[in-house]
Amino acid sequence: MGIQGDREGWKRYDTRDSPFLELKNPFTTGELVKTILMFPLLIVRTLLIVLALLVLAIMSFIAGLGWPLEEPMPAWRRNIVTASANCAGFVLMMLGFRLRVRGWENFAKAKELGVIGVFNHTAWVDAVALMYLFAPSGVSKESNAHLPLVGTCIRSFQNIYVSRSSIELAKRREGVPSVAEKIARRARDRRFPMLVMAPEGTCGDGRCILRFRTGAFVPGVPVLPICFRYNKRRINPAWTIINEGWHYVRMMSQISNALEVTVLPPYVPSEEERASPALYAQNVQELFCKTLGIPAIDQSQEEFSALVKLGVKVTWDGRRVIGPPGIVVDAGFVDLTPAMRKHE
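That's the G6002 protein sequence above. Prediction below.
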């Protein structure tokens, strides 16, 4: 599926088979009728979601009030955080998601080991499900901490925030911990909640596993594979290159949305894997592919960002790939090289 992440492949990137451009679930007449009928209920459910997020934000604010979030929370504060996660469960219900979890007993084993949770990243719904099931910490873009309402909701979950400026600062100044060092320290400190990461680094369409980055595997600690499988028969909930508002309306207009979560046994790395994070990442990626029955492809954030920079997107009805004049040529192929970041 797709192309290899090399310069020759970038020159003829096939948009028709891209994990970042959803063309397999077009908008139909039947869906139009359903959207019209469901729209009044959509408004009510959206208001209830906002109410649930307000409650979550208040509880999160109280849990973290006056406490340095770089330090482990005392039990009473952490109990508030855990209780607030039920608001995320209510949000899932209002989004119409029926949640089925397999392998829940493996989470209990993971807590004894001290692990990093790793999951295949498909949609923003992933974060809501993870919050509800595990009340974990995450590794997130620094900008997410400043989002209205959402930033307050996730404050007490003690995320590690990452930005390009913080990465550059760590490179320039001696003594400033890198992201990898922060992850390693947090993973080894069991006083904090489980840290979860998406090794793919961005969302794909859920029909493949994107290239795994090594950040979650550098510390050499066991990982807990958490596999997400969405029902994509009517609409794919995947957060690909889309109009977010229209995608939300389509998703909320479904009678139901299904999400199956499979929690695999903790994966304890061998000495060889501890010495080679790339090998560790590759072996865990293969485990995801085997569990979900989907292939791995050599694409990641670089290709996604290049498509966005070039203005390549899918029409509102999900039937065609479009872009500025001269960008998408030769029956769906596009040259990504002008927008690709330089690789060392």
